[in-house]
Amino acid sequence: MRWLASLSGRQRLWLALAFVAALVIVAVGVMRQKAAGQTGPAAFTVDMSMKEIAPQLNVTGKSLARELGLPLDAPKGEPLTALGVTQEELDHVAHHLLGHRESTLKYYVFAALVLFGLVFLVRLGRPDGSPAAERRMWYPRWPYAAALIVAVALCGFALGKSPNPMEGAVKVFKSFVGLYPSVAEKLAAFLFFAVLAVVGNKLICGWACPFGALQELAFSLPMLRRLKQKKIPFVASNTARCALFIVVLLLLFGIIGGQKGLVVYHFLNPFNLFNLDIETVSIGSTIFAALALSLGAYRPFCQFISPLGFLSWLLERGSVFRVKIDRERCTNCGACIRACPLQAASGRVAGKRFPADCFSCGRCLNVCPEDAIAYGLVGRKPGVHGNRS
Fold first, then answer.
1. Contacting residues for 74 by C-beta, under 8 A, at least 6 apart
2. CA distance 187 to 189
3. What is the pTM of this model?
């Protein structure tokens, strides 16, 4: 491959080190997972109380009551049969909650994919010394596609739906309501995803999230190209995403409805796909609609629904590495704007303080005829690594 052959010796060393580091991270995750051990599902009966069952499912009595359709203040020490719960209902709820058990290994795989994406974008995408005339060779799509396939296969179907970026953003708020026994544990999970979102601009969403990867792969299929040129106005998508997030919090904390614990995102969670557990019509419809729309629109679930998509958009202001524009070279030709699947490039060219989401997909990095765009450390002028000639 021309791109691979054009890499300098130093870049090939970077590539080798990135692979070794990623493998080491995953190996550590495998060892940690084995050390933690995997306990099989316990046998629960309606003769048991919520006080006995909840700790084994890693939830609080309030959370279990909500899942069973009982009031949050239902007596936690009484047998479930006395509260009108059937064995079939208990089995269904236990299966659902056990499906939320987190795979420790997934955190390490997420980190490895983000590391690879960061090294590729910052150091490997453009061969050292390659002139702008060869820019079409830069940032080939296949390393990105390979990372996306790994994300779907490993972070999705192989290791199940939990943990995932969406749950990381939701569970911390659920813990504040008392639906999980440890606020600190859920806050740490959220901070993990938040850090990966700011190390490199939204890299966790763009390179490692399994459902985000599925949408990206669907969008990359060579069809509906004219439709893909029409971008959803960011003000519309972000307003919808922000409004949904606020409504979810108001319902969760009982400010609307008067009863705490209702989580709207549960009815829209596409990550259930990776457990092959489509619990409701709304979840199945969300998965189908998001993937079907992805054939012509870029990451619709991330644009309109994802809570981490919204929060990481806010966090983008603190990204350490990101797409940067050299204002002295930029002629506003619009090449990067046309290449960007969203309105992120147009917002950055215009100098907006809060431009649209950038998923670090790299599409804009090899189209500028003036060599005015690069992916690098904030505060450092594009091209300082000696890539320009």
1. 50, 65, 83
2. 5
3. 0.88
169: tokens are 């953003």
pLDDT bin (cut points 50, 70, 90) of residue 293 is very high
Residue 42 lies in a domain: no
Q: For the domain that residue 358 is a member of, what is the CATH number?
A: 3.30.70.20
- Tokens for 286? 């969300």
Q: pLDDT tens across 181-193, in order?
A: 889 999 999 999 9
**Does 252 share its domain with 213?**
yes
Residue pair 270/287 in contact (Cβ under 8 Å)? The answer is yes
pLDDT at 383: 56
- The verdict on 292 and 143 lying in the same domain is yes
**Domain of 335?**
318-377
- The answer on 255 and 138 residing in a single domain is yes
- The CA distances from residue 192 to 101, 200, 312, in Å, are 17, 13, 12
Q: What is the mean pLDDT of residues 14-19?
A: 98
Contact predicate 53/64, CB 8 Å: yes
Give the whole-angstrom CA distance, residue 283 versus residue 295: 19
pLDDT at 384 over 50: no
